[in-house]
Write a structure and sequence with these properties.
The chain has 230 residues and is of the alpha+beta class. Helix content is 25%, strand content 27%. Strands 1, 2, 3, 4, 5, 6 and 7 form a 7-stranded mixed sheet that branches. The chain has a two-stranded antiparallel ribbon with strand order 8-9. A hairpin with a 5-residue loop joins β2 (64-69) and β3 (75-91). The longest helix is centred in the N-terminal third of the chain and has 13 residues, at 27-39. The termini are far apart.
Length: 230
């Protein structure tokens, strides 16, 4: 079975579906994108609601976007199926007034740069999340055929076999060892559920480093919520 089989099972024509495999080139944004998809889906959706001219053209003649995230070569993690609605142009100023874009800029998103990209505006598409295998969000893994760098495809032109349906969401990454955890302030509101669960049980010493003045603070966490409470 492949992705096109799943689409047809829901009476969706694969010829009307674009498949996105998001893998931002900005390191910070790439790191937190799965967390955004899990905990702030509106922010994640905003990331894909504007595109470059070639993808804009494809979206104007297509009905759906099947959205995935790339974490491993040759694989894609399912996020959701979105219907493509109306579109409107945004100027450079309007683009950077969108709250979601401001939030993602804090994670290094370059975004639309206006005349630097040869255009004074970019199209903003209304994308509505559909109830399409919603329980498989973060759990359905499909094969992403080469070339690896080709991040968007037309569904009907590609064979994307189903590789797995995981028990736990791949968007909520497993907790790393305690001595490998280093988080920026802006990342704390995006912690995966499994991280929150672990931190609520851990007691210990923590260190806060202020990058603006180079000063640090050492504290201890115990009692209610333990490290998570700090």
């Amino acid at each position: 079975m492949n992705l096109n089989d799943l689409l047809r099972a829901k009476s969706i024509d694969p010829e009307q579906v674009l498949v996105f495999r998001h893998r931002p080139f900005e390191p910070e944004l790439n790191n937190v994108l799965p967390w955004l998809a899990s905990k702030k889906p509106d922010i994640f959706n905003a990331y894909q609601q504007t595109q470059g001219p070639k993808v804009e053209k494809a979206m104007l003649s297509t009905a759906y976007v099947a959205s995935f995230i790339g974490r491993e070569p040759g694989k894609a993690v399912f996020v959701g199926l979105y219907s493509i609605g109306a579109s409107k142009p945004l100027t450079l100023t309007e683009y950077w007034q969108v709250p979601a874009h401001i939030e993602m800029k804090a994670f290094g998103m370059k975004g639309f740069r206006g005349e630097d990209e040869g255009s004074s505006s970019v199209l903003w598409f209304d994308l509505e999340l559909k109830d399409f295998y919603a329980s498989w969000k973060g759990k359905l893994i499909v094969h992403w055929p080469p070339p690896e760098r080709s991040w968007w495809r037309r569904a009907h032109n590609n064979d994307m076999p189903l590789l797995a349906v995981l028990e736990d969401s791949a968007l909520d990454a497993a907790m790393p060892p305690w001595d490998e955890i280093a988080l920026a302030w802006k990342e704390l509101s995006l912690l995966p559920v499994r991280w929150e669960s672990a931190l609520s049980q851990w007691r210990g010493i923590y260190y806060i480093f202020d990058i603006s003045d180079g000063k640090g603070y050492v504290g201890s966490a115990y009692g209610s919520w333990n490290l998570l409470g700090r």
